[in-house]
Amino acid sequence: MTFSLTSLSLAHVARAARALSLFRRSLLFVGCWSFAAVAVSTAAELPTVALFTTGGTIQSKGKHRLTLSEYNDGRVTPDELLTDLPELKTLAKVEVTEISNIGSGGVTTELLLKLAKSINATLARPDVAGAVVTHGTGTLEETAYFLQLTVNSAKPVVVVGAMRPFTAISRDGPYNLYNAVRTAATPDAAGKGVMVVLNDTIHSARFVTKNHTYHVETFVARELGPLGFVDSDRVVFYRNPLVRHTVTSEFDVSKIETLPQVDIVYGYQEASSAPIFALTKAGAKGIVFADSSPSYARAFSAAQAEGVVIVQSDRKGAGRVTLSERGAGRGIITADNLNAQKARILLRLALTKTSDPRQLQRIFNEY
Ligand code: ASP
């Protein structure tokens, strides 16, 4: 019995192997054709992709090829970035605008507004297919989410960075940039909001977060996963974000020169409420709490009495903050499942429209 079963399995295996080899040969055939198709499309008119550079590790130099942290030995210019990657010429006509060349910890409101306005002006041109932004990974998710709320075009916008500097062995920057331009040039990428592409993975700016201090596989969307992948043969999408973004966003920064101050306070055991009083005094218009603490109660009320809007986020990194009757009664807004740094971005923009708690909660429910 055992023997006959085994021989049956062997026969199956042999048949499967024959089928697999036939399949492989046909794949090779299809592969040749798709290669020919790629060759034809490179000869044809290429799409224009606008590249906005801001700096970050992708443009950073280290002393040695093994310098994988503390790489403070200058930065490459946008020209060097492009010269280093001649393969981009087969994908698109890349037009570069240098916004800055800094680490992402130094990104300011002024820079965010300049970036959003430049992208909006460029994407309004009919000849431009999409935009790519180079950025440090540290605060990349904040800029990506800001653009998701303020770019008013359905054309793809892709934010890209690298975990290893330009000078490192096995650096990830060039292929990330190549894949970002491929994604921005892909018609299927339109209407998906702002995307973050690193490590062959496409994430929505709304859900992505940096998850590891130095691994190249650092960007994740904890509960919801990626939108798609940049595979060797094509860019594949499996999902669409359903929240409001880009063309359905109500935020318009075209005439805005600055944004209200919003800060973040982190909750922990026996947390001091001193930061809440200090921020209120320093002129904060909103405070986002990454978790709360019982000791905050008095400071909450004092801040609210000064007109400070309180938004409740959470430090766990996944899951919605649900709206309790008690919280709503005290005028506290919940951040849905936005982490504190993204809730801060949304609150700053929301405060340009309203300070009515019901309207603010609607905004947090919709974006
Ligand atoms: N320090 C870098 C920054 O600009 C880190 C990075 O790009 O990964 O955020």
Mean pLDDT: 90
What is the radius of gyration? 24 Å
The coarse silhouette is: globular
Fraction of helical residues: 25-40%
User: What series of H and E elements makes up the topology?
Assistant: HEHEHEHEHEEEEEEEHEHEHEHH
User: What does the largest sheet look like?
Assistant: 8 strands, mixed
> Which CATH C-level class of the largest domain is it?
Alpha Beta
Structural class: alpha/beta
**CA-to-CA gap between the ends?**
62 Å
Ranges where pLDDT stays below 50 over 5 or more residues in a row are: 1-41
Cofactors, ions and other ligands in the entry: aspartic acid
Named at the architecture level, the CATH assignment of the largest domain is 3-Layer(aba) Sandwich
Report strand order across the widest sheet: 2-1-3-4-5-6-9-10
CATH topology heading of the largest domain: Rossmann fold
| Count of alpha and pi helical runs | 10
What is the total domain count?
Answer: 2
CATH superfamily of the largest domain: L-asparaginase, N-terminal domain
Beta-strand percentage? Answer: 15-25%
Family: Belongs to the asparaginase 1 family.
Active site: 57
Protein name: L-asparaginase
GO molecular function: asparaginase activity
